[in-house]
Amino acid sequence: MLKTVFGKIKPLIKAMRLEEQSIVLVSYLYGWLDSHSFVKQQLNRLVYSGVGLVFLSVVSFLVNEYIDAKDTDQFRQDKQPMSTINSTSFVATVAIFGILGIIIAARQGFFWAGIIMLLAGIAYSWPPLRTKNRSLWDFFTLAFLFIIIPYLIPYWLSKASILSINWLGLLFFLLLALASNLLAIVRDIEPDRQANLTTTGTVLGYKKTLILGALALGASLFLAGVMLYQKIGWWYYPTIPFALATLCIVSFCAGSRFETKRIAFYCRKAIKVGVKITYLIIAYQLAALALI
Which of 28, 217, 252, 268 could form a disulfide linkage to 150, CB 3.0–4.6 angstroms apart? Predict the structure, then answer.
């Protein structure tokens, strides 16, 4: 019986893509570090708020997987997790995570930010708005959803001045995260194109999307150099080699003459490695919080 139950919920758990929730936590922890507002007495608040953000992020991933199963995933060779989940299970899971996320947000003091994050996550995938299907809007929605909102939450909670934002650090990480996401966009270009979606990737094509990523990474490394020169935001420094490595991968793919399937293959591999590296960044961030 337990095996049967697990067999039914396993696709749903896979659809949550829990391993990819790390980007939200990295943004959130950089917010705490930059706001200089964390004290040990706020540890519970830091943990509960982080859990709330992850719950709201999970909703956006579930909705995306559910909608994609109806079009773009039909053109994938691998079996997608949402294709085996009925609507009732989907609605119930989304409702549970959404409600819990909003309750935590309300109790911790960022109710409206939580509402905005929930709506933005749904709008990214759900028709007719579906910003994922609008070139550049997909880009900006993800930046708002996974980088900007989580980063600003600690400022909201601690009432720290917005003027104290480390703009160099925020822009450095924002450009790095968006450029890294372009690898996922490149990976999905072919199925998105066959599903007649007008994402940034399908509009620009493989080469131009990768070139855009390389330019974003170059700009992020320039900002990193400014931070190093000014000796600020030392907690960002371990991320710089990651940005440099990503630039090498993107530039290699952009300059290669590989067929599109091979480029998509390399992008998938790079994404998996990148996700694991974010775990190390989170560990470093937590250590940095203990030191400041």
Answer: 28
Q: Tell me if 134 sits within 8 A of 198, measured CB to CB.
A: yes
Angstrom CA distances, 218 to 214, 224, 264, stand at 6, 10, 22
- Residues 6+ away with beta carbon under 8 Å from 143: 174, 177, 178
239-274 pLDDT, tens digit per residue, is: 999 888 888 888 877 777 667 777 777 788 888 888
Contact (CB, 8 A) for 227 and 168: yes
Which pTM value belongs to this model?
Answer: 0.90
Q: Which one, of 105, 131, 132, lies nearest residue 118 by Cα?
A: 105
List the domain range (segments joined by +) for residue 225. Answer: 20-291
CA distance linking residue 138 with residue 77, whole number of Å: 24
Q: Identify whether 5 is part of a domain.
A: no
Domain tally, the chain:
1
The answer to whether residue 3 sits within a structural domain is no
Cα–Cα distance between 136 and 201 in angstroms, integer? Answer: 9
Contacts of 152 (CB under 8 A, 6+ apart): 31, 113
Q: Residue 250 is part of a domain; what is its CATH number?
A: 1.10.600
Domain annotation covers residue 4: no
With respect to residue 57, please indicate whether it lies within any of the assigned structural domains: yes
